Amino acid sequence: MSSTSEFLWYIPNQVKAGHRGEPAAENHNSLATLTGQAKALEEHGWKGALIGTGWGRPDTFTVAAALAAQTTTFEPLIAIRPGYWRPANFASAAATLDHLTGGRVRINIVSGKDNLAAYGDSEGDQAHRYARTREFMRLVRRLWTEENVSFAGEHFVVTESSVVPRLAARPGRRHPRLYFGGASEAAERVAATEADVQLFWGEPLDGVAERIERLKALSRTLDRDLPPLEFGLRITTFVRDTTQEAWADAEAKVAEMARSSGTGWHDHHRANAVGQQRLLDLHARGEVLDDNLYTTPGKFGGGGAGTTWLVGSAADVARSLRKYADLGITHFVLSDTPYLSEIKRQGSQLLPLLRDRLAA
């Protein structure tokens, strides 16, 4: 694994209790509960956590700011949507939080479909949506790195705009990293030109390898003028003390999903999203792909990062993640439920193995 590899978790940002097998609890999204997860991440070797976005969830930026204020090293990967935010408003908010936290902000730009009308937004077809996203990312980066920015595009306009506070120069980054996802041709063109990190769902190794090579080629074809695109993996890691115990527990959880029709697992279950459909189609290739990529959850309601799981002992899962790292993945966003106990288990069992391999 690369010495620059980073390991993040996932903090659920949900109004309803119970999420991807998480036991329902009355205080599941209280400041105390979420802070407990963020502090556990600090204590067990994680860099930070992705915090998801979507209309009908608590506001992601507010949650991230609250958790950052309660911690010292925790880095929130804040999911945000163009359209929900205007570029200059967002650039200012992110620069402010980055300043207040000493440079701990990361951003995940989300362009998938949402309930746009509910928050007063509208957009056209896929080409329009991703053109707006590309313009948003380019303008935000300019606002972070230039002063007195004037810009008149198809979607956004600013005049003599200087964001304050100005972002401080920090080792290894000019500004908060912009993570991005999406598997359609339109999404990949945005990633190739504007993203700092492309996130993949848990696809088999051959699919990830093919996408990495395509994105690298696109970056050259489209004359990318940024540092080389980096790559990340967002996946469920189902870890137990032994291989046998992991598979028994994973199959039992899927059986419960089948009985409940995937209740609580549908937050990304949109067949019209290209990346999600790729995952949902995997179980047709087999229940287990590569060494231990379990595809059956997607058959019974698993969506997004819950569609496929890497299942096994810590050594099994570390071995699989190493194979993704060998393809060029350097950012890992892992999770399983119950969230708090798995933060501790995987921080204690999985991360040391990954770091030992990194050192080797």
From TrEMBL:
It comes from the Bacteria. Coiled coil: none annotated. It holds the Pfam family Bac_luciferase. The keyword Membrane does not apply. One of its GO terms (molecular function) is alkanesulfonate monooxygenase activity. The keyword Flavoprotein applies. Keywords: Flavoprotein, FMN, Monooxygenase, Oxidoreductase. Residues 6-331 form the Luciferase-like domain. GO terms for biological process: alkanesulfonate catabolic process. Gene3D superfamilies: Luciferase-like domain (3.20.20.30). PANTHER family: ALKANESULFONATE MONOOXYGENASE, ALKANESULFONATE MONOOXYGENASE-RELATED. This is Alkanesulfonate monooxygenase. The lineage of its organism: Bacteria, Pseudomonadati, Pseudomonadota, Alphaproteobacteria, Hyphomicrobiales.
